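If your schedule permits, I should be very grateful for your opinion on a structural question. I have a record of one protein: its chain in single-letter code and its fold written as discrete structure tokens. Would you kindly read the sequence against the tokens and tell me how you understand this chain to fold? Thank you for your consideration; the sequence and its tokens are set out here.


***
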Amino acid sequence: MPRIRQNSNCITISFLRIAVLLVFCLLSNPLNAQVRRISTGGGFSSSTSSNSTTGSNTTNSTANIPNSNNDSTFRDTNAVRGLVYHKETPDSVLQRQVFMFHYQPYAVKIDDIWNPVLNPTGVQFTDRLDAFNGNYYLGKGIVGQPHYGIFPTFVDGLDDQLQTDPNEGYAKRFGNIWLYQTMTPYTTLNYQSSLDKDYQVRIAHTQNIRPGWNISFDYNLICPEGVYTSSGVKNHYLDATTNFFSSDSRLQAVAGLIWQSFNIDENGGIADDDYFTHQLQSNRAGVPVNLYNSGTRHRETSAFAHATYNLVQQQPHYRQRDSITVRNITDTITVVDTIHITDTIFPAAPKILNAGAFGVELKYDRRKRAFLDSTLWTERDATLFWTNDAYPDYRWHNPVKITLGVKSVSYKTTIDDRAEIRSTDLFKPFSNVELALGRSKLGFDANIGSIGENLEYHFRGHFEVPFDSASNTTLLLTAAAQRADPDIRPIADASINQGIDLQQITAECYELQLVSGEWLNLMVRANHISHNVWYDTALLVHEGTHHFWLYQAALTSRLSAGWFHLDMQQLLQHTTDQEQMPVPLWTSKNSIYAELHLFGRALTLQTGVDLRYLTSFYAPSYDYRTGLFCHQDEVKVGNYIWGDIFVNIQVKRASIYLKGGHINALWESNPNYFTLPHYPGRKFGLYWGVTWRFFD
């Protein structure tokens, strides 16, 4: 008994000391004081609190840890030495971008740490072009084959192509691969299949080999069965990346390699659409096709490197004020805790004129497309830039952000082994200026260059107005203008086969966008295009002799009430010249589902339906000989509802889905489900898959 009283007195005195010290600190600086606790004894206390290092991209959390005894721990190397955190999920940074990632990049969670199909829409992880991402595509009926975008965009980026890329949505690019920073190794395994012998395999792994230095690779294999007698797809995707940042984040670098191989056997489309529209032939093996040995081969190798160095020394985020040692003695365990009491140091207001940060970027891209003819395209880019936005602390924003740079580009294109085009632009200046007007932002981008003798430019101005202090609801006004040569392929075809020279395409875009959290995104856009270029079914190049307008409106909304969820996208489009730019009037995608958490939230279940619809229009046809989309006015596509049902189940780190695709085809006597002219979509199919993640 005396021993127990002695221990109790020690504990009481220790806590009194802590209380007095905390009260003193709070009275002297009540808003800035932070407590850091270091565990050095025989376990982790449930009362241990952690601190997040400043930075808007930084998230450290010890709340709601489902099983702390099995969770891994990591050390915050930038905080007090020895500070230990629990973690619930792995972390990531640099998602889809690498320009100036100067926030402390070591504790940002991966966005899709759980099952990516729980977005929802069931099998969307198999068919990425059907994802809920604002892009709509007309497909050729086979997952993994080229698709045609039915929501065209203009002047969205500085280097956008003006013609449709047949591999858009599938091919990996410098801007859509994932880069990580992880505390523990992270692995994703995925397998999916169907009754039609489709299968997809994905293996991704990433880990830090030392603090601030990460390596990762991501391999994806898509092998769906074809619709015709002898058709199918075998696509390989592989990227390997590494990124590094110094302890003070002044030096940051990323490099990567992308390798892709697409093999598509497609038979060139069916000879008579009546075989499908009137079900005259139920066995697809007997459907006559235009060619039995047509196919495409696509090979691509890309490499890139990007590095930035900040010449401005960053301030420390906190300073230690005092510390105290607490000894907790029980009958069998002695635990010694050291509590450090620190003050947050608020940084000074950033300077408009400062040494800033310098960056360099190198890219190499080689693409080989083989149809009945072939195209070899090689591009080399080198970019050097400077920015005065050298202050990473999220509580301050430079009132005037300036970025200046110059880009050098070299192209080489060989078409059909007979036409070779070389072009070089050694000096393409670009700039960006952003002015803070209170919480509002006013910005302007400019990119100027030339290919040969023709001057090209891209200008963009934007004005962002937040309606609340957290910027959850914002209004964005954008105006952009672009003038550029058509893509190299139509330039060569027009000059060689038709003896004409194409003029430059000009486009202006005026856009208003209202965003409120994740539940509302409303966009209204007007595009003005002159000298548009397209192919006809005879593979002749056409150039518009007059300008036209393309009006677009898009509504994206995610609504929920308890277990009920509705995710939808509605697109309205109107063009003043359907020959130059054929688009459907209305496109709709809707996911209606229930989300339930069972067994103490250990199991998450989603079940519901996907409904997709677009009005009929003269969709461009696909030419299997050249891989080009051609305008036509003979066959309309659309005016047909596609319905899918799905069930998603997630148990801890494993996710399972089951989906019935095109469910309404089961009871329709005369389905008209062409995804492109002469390319029918699939009938009812059953799909399933499993995703398993490891991060320990």
